[in-house]
Every structure is written in structure tokens, then in C-alpha cells.
């Protein structure tokens, strides 16, 4: 998998979707290229006085349907191709969610766990100064992703205010409540995944309370998703994060794991539970469960791991966890995949709700927020499902087809071909 290029993977699926729709290359060629890619260098004085220079990226894949929108990731392996693919997936996802955004993503190549809080703040503010010309509430609106959180979003909003001379909370979403965040956003991606699973159960005449599950990733998406699904009766026997894989055949104590991870920097390192054992990470995918919930990183289910999967259903909370090769294999084997661009859209739909509240200055209750989220998740699922049934394709292909139709229509209506 050394040569895995997530952007190429995205293009392959996009081309297939276009083919099923009967599009010629020129009908959608523009969607194959990001509109704008910015690479920046961020010099930081570290606490001990020495200087380090970090690479950062912001890619705006599309603004056809509205301002570019998507999270920012801090990760040691972040690079141009990863951020490009993540930005394109945002275009597709935002179109499926039918929210008025294009797609973008950002990244800094750094291991944030090695930085002090002061260094992290300086790095974040340095990054904002470099991408300042291309972001704004109507231009490009960042949000959290892997290894970023509400505090980092608050620093982004504050640095933007310092540069622009005005407090504009709608420049970034996923903020803490004290800085214009919204009730519900922190849980939105996980809650949206629960709604997706519930809709799948309804369509397949399954009772969610009878499902068993294994989860990879226990950060924002994995931990909230697992907690909410557990509360609905799903039995979660296996959870893995970067530190290890925990297994309890009687069902893990998800509440305890959630509290532990959230008081240990979103990490399960050191977690113990009576009846639970630590198993090799390589055994996570081969668990004999009903659902494999992917909530870590891309390229996890690929040519080398796909044959391990025993679960008949894969729920994608992470972006891009399944390569095209693995996807084809799962289709052949009858393993159903609820794809990222449909299933985890709750995060950005929740961000849209926050942005709407920031711009109107009128804040909703959590119950209102969750009710609207449920409605949006349902609509996204049904819109994808209708195409899946009509064309007899996978959920993923149907999702890409739906997005392609919406982006192409917006682009053509605006008429911005040169
Ligand atoms: N935060 C959000 O609102 C959204 C995030 N996503 C996607 O969901 C995924 C997870 O994001 P977050 O939960 O926000 O990130 P996070 O930083 O809160 O958590 C990431 C989790 O993945 C685990 N992990 C990392 N590498 C791993 C490995 N090699 N093996 C096993 N576990 C590993 C970490 O230990 C951690 O538990 C990413 O793909 C992200 O792009 C998608 C939609 C929205
Ligand atoms: O909330 C957002 O704007 C984007 C979240 C995100 O990065 C994602 O959906 O992958």
C-alpha cells in the first residue's frame, strides 16, 4: 500500500459514477481538479527557544455550491494528496447533505502530541495568518478533524478577528459554546452515524438492539458514535485506538471507556476493565460481529486487510477508510458498506447549523439541533438510496452519483466554464 494515493482513489469512484450517469468527460471534468491549493510554511519558536518550520495545507476543491467547507487535521503524515482527497470528499459530502457549501480541507504536518499547549497555539495562529487571504465566513470555513478540537477552533476564530478587526464567529465551526459554538456540534458526527445505522436497520428489518459491533478509532467520531449506539442497545465487543485494541466478549463498558478517553486527551492508553483483554490490533477487522464501525483514518480496509473482514456491514465514520480495491471485494462478497460521504455527513451538517446560528445571532436548543440533524441525515440517506435502487449500484456509487448531479447542476447554472 506504499503507493496509495487517496486522490486517485477518489477520482476512480467519481469516474465510475459519471459513467453510470452517462456523463461525458467534459460534463464533469472540472470536478476532477481542486479549484485552489495552498501550501504554507509556518515557522514557530518552540518553548526551548529553537525554531521549527511546519508545512501546512488548505485545499479548496469546489465552491460551486457555496463557500468552501471542511475540517483541519494535525497529523505527522498529512500531505498534499491526503488533503486534496479529503477536500474532494467534502465537496461530495456537502452535496449529499444538500447544504450550501463547496468542499475544502486543511492540514498541518505535525504530531500535536509532541507540542506543548503554548506551541500548539502558536502553530495554529501561524497557520491562520498564512491562510487568512483565502478563508472567511463566505469564502472558506474550517472545522475540527483528526487531532484538532474546540480549543483550536477558538484560537482560529480569535486570530481571524485580530487580522480582520472584527469578531466573525462564522469563520470557523466546531467552536466551544463560550465562543459561539452550538449545542450538539460536538456530538453531531457520532449522532449522525447512529441515525444512519438506524435507517439501515429499518430498511433491512433489523433490530438495532440485536447488533454486535467492533470499532476502530475512539476519538470524537468513534467515542461519541460508540456511546450513542451502545445507549440504543448495540453490543460493542471490541474497540481499538492508536494505543491498542480492547476486547470483551460480553460487551465493553462503553460509558467507562468514554469517560476515560475524554479525561485522558481522547486516548485509551492505560484503560483497564474487568473481563476485557488487550488483543493484537490485527484482530480487530476479523471480529465476528454484525457491524464494523470505522472511525480512525483512511486506507485501513485495503488489499492487505480486506479478506479479514467477517462483519456483513461496514459503517464508515472515518473519511476514506476503504480503498477502491477493498470496496470491489466487499461488493463481491456481499458485505454492505455505508460510505463516509453519506454516513458521517452529520459533522458538517452540524457545522452548517452552527454557522447559520452564528450568522443570525439566534441560538437553538440542543433538542432543536438534534431534530434538524435527524431530518437532514434521513434525507441524505433516502436521496442516496433512491439512486442505489434505481441504478442497482452500491451506496458509495449512488452517493457519488447524487453529489455529481448536484455539483454539475450548480456549476452549469452558474455558468462559470471559461
Ligand atoms: N470530527 C469530525 O467532525 C469528523 C471527522 N471525520 C473523520 O473521522 C475520522 C476520525 O476523526 P476524529 O474522531 O475527529 O479524530 P480524533 O483525532 O478525535 O480521533 C482519531 C482516533 O483514531 C485513532 N487512530 C489513529 N490512528 C489509528 C490507527 N492507526 N489505528 C487505530 N486507531 C487509530 C486515534 O487513537 C483516535 O482514537 C477521520 O477520518 C476524520 O476525517 C469525519 C466527519 C466529521
Ligand atoms: O464540520 C465540518 O465543516 C467538516 C467536518 C469534516 O472535516 C468532515 O466531515 O470530514
UniProtKB/TrEMBL annotation:
This is Glutamate dehydrogenase. The keyword Transferase does not apply. GO terms for biological process: L-glutamate catabolic process. Substrate binds at residues 69, 93, 351. PANTHER family: GLUTAMATE DEHYDROGENASE, GLUTAMATE DEHYDROGENASE 1, MITOCHONDRIAL. Residues 182-415 form the Glutamate/phenylalanine/leucine/valine/L-tryptophan dehydrogenase C-terminal domain. Keywords: NAD, Nucleotide-binding, Oxidoreductase. Coiled coil: none annotated. Belongs to the Glu/Leu/Phe/Val dehydrogenases family. PROSITE patterns: GLFV_DEHYDROGENASE. The record marks 145 as: Important for catalysis. NAD(+) binds at residues 189, 220. SUPFAM superfamilies: Aminoacid dehydrogenase-like, N-terminal domain, NAD(P)-binding Rossmann-fold domains. GO terms for molecular function: glutamate dehydrogenase (NAD+) activity; nucleotide binding. It comes from the Bacteria. SMART domains: ELFV_dehydrog (SM00839). The active site is at residue 105.
Amino acid at each position: 500500500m506504499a503507493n496509495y494515493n487517496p486522490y486517485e482513489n477518489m477520482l476512480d469512484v467519481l469516474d465510475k459514477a459519471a459513467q453510470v450517469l452517462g456523463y461525458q468527460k467534459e460534463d464533469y471534468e472540472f470536478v476532477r481538479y481542486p479549484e485552489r491549493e495552498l501550501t504554507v510554511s509556518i515557522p514557530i519558536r518552540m518553548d526551548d527557544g529553537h525554531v521549527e518550520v511546519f508545512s501546512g495545507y488548505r485545499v479548496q476543491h469546489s465552491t460551486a455550491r457555496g463557500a468552501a467547507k471542511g475540517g483541519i487535521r494535525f497529523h505527522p503524515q498529512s500531505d498534499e494528496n491526503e488533503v486534496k482527497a479529503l477536500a474532494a470528499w467534502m465537496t461530495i459530502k456537502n452535496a449529499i447533505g444538500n447544504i450550501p457549501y463547496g468542499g475544502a480541507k486543511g492540514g498541518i504536518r505535525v504530531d500535536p502530541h509532541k507540542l506543548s499547549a503554548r506551541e500548539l497555539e502558536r502553530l495554529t495562529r501561524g497557520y491562520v495568518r498564512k491562510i487568512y487571504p483565502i478563508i472567511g465566513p463566505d469564502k472558506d470555513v474550517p472545522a475540527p478533524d483528526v487531532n484538532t478540537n474546540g480549543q483550536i477552533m477558538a484560537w482560529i476564530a480569535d486570530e481571524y478577528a485580530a487580522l480582520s478587526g472584527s469578531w466573525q464567529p462564522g469563520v470557523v465551526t466546531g467552536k466551544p459554546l463560550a465562543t459561539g459554538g452550538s449545542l450538539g456540534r460536538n456530538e453531531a458526527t457520532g449522532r449522525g452515524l447512529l441515525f444512519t445505522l438506524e435507517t439501515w436497520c429499518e430498511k433491512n428489518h433489523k433490530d438495532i438492539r440485536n447488533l454486535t459491533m467492533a470499532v476502530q478509532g475512539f476519538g470524537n467520531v468513534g467515542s461519541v458514535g460508540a456511546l450513542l449506539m451502545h445507549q440504543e442497545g448495540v453490543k460493542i465487543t471490541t474497540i481499538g485506538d492508536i494505543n491498542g485494541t480492547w476486547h470483551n466478549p460480553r460487551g465493553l463498558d462503553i460509558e467507562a471507556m468514554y469517560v476515560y478517553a475524554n479525561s485522558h486527551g481522547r486516548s485509551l492508553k492505560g484503560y483497564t476493565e474487568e473481563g476485557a483483554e488487550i488483543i493484537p490490533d490485527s484482530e480487530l477487522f476479523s471480529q465476528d460481529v454484525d457491524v464494523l464501525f470505522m472511525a480512525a483514518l483512511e486506507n485501513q480496509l485495503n488489499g492487505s486487510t480486506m479478506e479479514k473482514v467477517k462483519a456483513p456491514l461496514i459503517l464508515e465514520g472515518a473519511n476514506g477508510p476503504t480503498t477502491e480495491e477493498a470496496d470491489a471485494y466487499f461488493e463481491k462478497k456481499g458485505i454492505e458498506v455505508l460510505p463516509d460521504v453519506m454516513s458521517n455527513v452529520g459533522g458538517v451538517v452540524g457545522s452548517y447549523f452552527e454557522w447559520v446560528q452564528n450568522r443570525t445571532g439566534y441560538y437553538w436548543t440542543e433538542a432543536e439541533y438534534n431534530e434538524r440533524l435527524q431530518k437532514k441525515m434521513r434525507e441524505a440517506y433516502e436521496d442516496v438510496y433512491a439512486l442505489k435502487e434505481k441504478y442497482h449500484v452500491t451506496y458509495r456509487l449512488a452517493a457519488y452519483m447524487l453529489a455529481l448531479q448536484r455539483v454539475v447542476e450548480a456549476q452549469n447554472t452558474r455558468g462559470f466554464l471559461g
